Amino acid sequence: MTTRAIDRARAAAVDMLRTARVAVRPDEIAAMEVTDLGLGDFKTVGIQVLVYENNDRYCAKELILLPRQTCPEHRHPPISARNAGKQETFRCRWGEIYLYVDGEPAPKPKARIPAKYASLLTARHEIVLKPGDQFTLPPNSLHWFQAGDKGAVVSEFSSTSTDENDVFTDPRIRRVQG
Amino acid sequence: MTTRAIDRARAAAVDMLRTARVAVRPDEIAAMEVTDLGLGDFKTVGIQVLVYENNDRYCAKELILLPRQTCPEHRHPPISARNAGKQETFRCRWGEIYLYVDGEPAPKPKARIPAKYASLLTARHEIVLKPGDQFTLPPNSLHWFQAGDKGAVVSEFSSTSTDENDVFTDPRIRRVQG
Q: For B117, phi and psi rounded to 5 degrees?
């Protein structure tokens, strides 16, 4: 992404946090991760992430998705004999989020699935999260999510985050740490 | 606490969450822990807790403190050879919180320390948390905190929570699970 595109995305995310009344500090805004996950199609596939805390025991982040932006399908695989992979809880704080996991497919999904990504978004069981709703994903479960028309602010509570271990369905994606 | 006192405290906490724009569900409100920690002095010593998630790897809660309410001094001791005790991060979402840990005492603490509890609030190093500010406590460190004049909403991110293991400085306190 160009510096200008990153700056614009960051400004849009900050606007959304302000609307959602989520207090963040200037140093957190400066450190916000803005990524298109290497696909060069930021408005459709991308995410903004504020890492509040990530230590060897737990992690907490705020995820900000612009309107209809999609975090592409991935899973958090086992990383050691004692670590079955990252377990995570998504709690919708503002806006709306459509989360997809393995299971009975939604007959009419609320997400807009672009044809060019359809084969890379294989999980089709739908979980709709509105403000106050949350869902906990077991380790190693495939998932992807898309924000609704207004975008979304989602708190992620989890075990330790090691993004470099994430496995994406789309082989072109390499997770870049911000 | 009487049922009526609990209902009033819960209603005040819900009002504060609404002012802070923190979305919570009706079933979460019904399950909210409201406790005076057994001291029968709720306006001075007590806390309201929403447990969003507590599993064998991590925990996330929203703590609500009424104006000038104090969570009394305690620590989270080691509970096994592999668990050094609960580690936790407090992030102020709304209002103001005065957190006290071991270290250089504040010459003029912002908390109001009632004379009858002064000997039971031994940690006097002050950390002021305003919205967006956070602090991570190492396991087994003594701490207590008081909300400012408006009260406070604080997100707690932590390792697994096992309240029954908490050690309070005041020997009269027995932590009761809500």
A: -105, -5
